[in-house]
Amino acid sequence: MPTSLLRAHQLTCIRENRILFDELDFDVNAGDLIQIEGANGTGKTSLLRILAGLSLPYEGDVLYGQSSITACRDEYYQDLTFIGHLAGVKGELSALQNLSFSLSIQGDRTDNIDQAIDNVDLTGFENANAAHLSAGQNRRIALARLWQSTSKIWILDEPFTAIDKSGVAALEQLFIDHTAQGGAIIFTSHQELLIANQQVIHINLEDNS
Amino acid sequence: MTPLDHQSLNYTPLSYGQLFMKVMNRDLKVAIHNKGDILNPLIFLVIVITLFPLGIGPETNLLTRIAPGIIWVAALLSALLSLERLFKNDFIDGSLEQMLLSPQPLFIMVLAKITAHWLLTGLPILIIAPLLGLMLHMEPLAYPALMITLAIGTPVLSLIGAIGVALTVGLKKGGVLLSLLILPLYIPLLIFATGAIEAASLGMPYGSHLAIISALLIGAITLSPFAVSSALRVSTN
Amino acid sequence: MWKWLHPYAKPERSYQLASTLLPWFAISSVILLTIGVVWGLAFAPSEAYQKEYYRIIYIHVPAATLSMSVYMAMATAVLISMVWQLKLADATAAALAPVGATLTTIALITGAIWGAPSWGTSWVWDARLTSYLILLFLYLGVIALNNAFDDKALASRAAGILTLVGVVNIPIIKYSVEWWNTLHQTATISKFDSPSMSTEMLWPLLINITGFAFMIGTLTLIRFKNEVLARNSMRPWVIELATKEGIK
Fold first, then answer.
1. Chain C residue numbers touching A60 (CB-CB < 8 A)
2. Distance of residue A127 Cα from the nearest chain B Cα, in angstroms
3. To probe the interface with C, which of B191, B217, B230 has the most C CB atoms within 10 Å?
4. CB hemisphere CA count around C161 (13 angstroms)
């Protein structure tokens, strides 16, 4: 049996007396590109936050290696990059300051930051305060971390929101590279990936509740 | 084959000191852009101090007698006012979430944030304290005690207050609740700090009071970051 | 070693256990309190200095003694919940908080009533009264925090952290208030010093303390049952129970 990177075990989530998903089981293996699907309010974000250890499930466990993620946060978080709805970008600081701070806090590569800035098309804006940049550009500051990431597991909540076409293409290419190198990506998106890719695994939360 | 294998090449954890400085510097940089957050609690403090002579009369003897208590109570209240910004903005923009997902030890980051908060709100109180003493005709002998108690006492305010803020940061109406949660916990500090200043103004030794306040400070430094860390995990849930 | 406890980690089993225990606690508390109150108020001898009004101790002392114990019980429940991830311990802590707050309020009110004739004023900044007032604030903080969260499990975790912070602080607060009180010694008549209470006075008091303990048990069990139901409202057994009792 191959060891999975991450395992969702009997996850149950209840919000406001409504069962969002019940006894959800799945494995995340190296090379997996998993898209969580479902209409609004079916618990996509809740599931991602549970997988990241930000929320606790009502019942069940998320296992990293052999142990529950709450028991091995430090190891798990070395191996996890999570980008949620909120960009985690400080308006008072420049794009560059924001990026280099979050890279060093997350234990990602801090060399070659200029390249990462370039990858998300922010060259020329790196010293502008994030508050003066657009929503899409703020989002890009957060996404730039992915190019510097040393983590295997990426959990991304709506990464394509507010990103233009060329940005989406670059990001999709990065997804392909990352999974090819043995990483795993769990993401939500309202749009289909442009790359017609058979290897995308779909998990639909509407089937479960 | 554990998933950890490939890490060793790239991941070099920051030392505790580096991490502490990084987080603190960032908070200070951000605060420079929000000068009102630093100034307003101070102005509040001065106004509260002004209200007392107006409320109970300008009689010098009376003011001298109650000055230590008034200054310390006003400091408690202004600390309360400034505390909310400790985690609120980070919570709103998502950087708090990122901090919780970091492989670095959370309690160091929490301690760094609290230190930055104290530098921005506690230290200024210390600087204007002599002025406040002057306004209330405080006994000249008591000034050193006032300064020392504020110097070791205001960090305790930030440390204990941080627990309350961490518990309420996710709530819409956290402000009033915050005062209910932490003001009772400030009582021992208030008692010993004012006790020290009163002893000093009578020319009596107050070393034992300072020892107790220092003990409170050490206790708060060791325990508070852990309580804050687990409270933050609850609040971002 | 603790195997026999495991079934009770299931909410359904402990709900049933609480239901079984409830009548015993209720009956014991009614019997003990009736005996204690009637004996204390009507038959115990009157006191030399305070004549009849000392009799309020039969309410004041049990409430005061146990209000602190309830906080400790709450903290123990929180600790159990944190160490063993036992959700039922959360329900217990949430059930205890308002009971403790009520006891503390009773202790304060009876203290003030007692103070009126013995100190000549209803409120004195006496060390003990002041620490109970602060204890009440701590209880109110825990209750307020419990109510501030929509999600019961989150509320319990938050209130739990505050409870533990409170436990660390209670001895410090108690010590500081006592020290403060000796510093600001006012010319009040100190509470009556009775090095030895006569046995006729002591017995009804002990009976009342036990009766209070059972009353706390009763109230906590009722609240515990409600908490368990509220936290498991999605469970089949709760829905079954509700339909059986005719609730839609």
1. none
2. 14
3. B191
4. 29
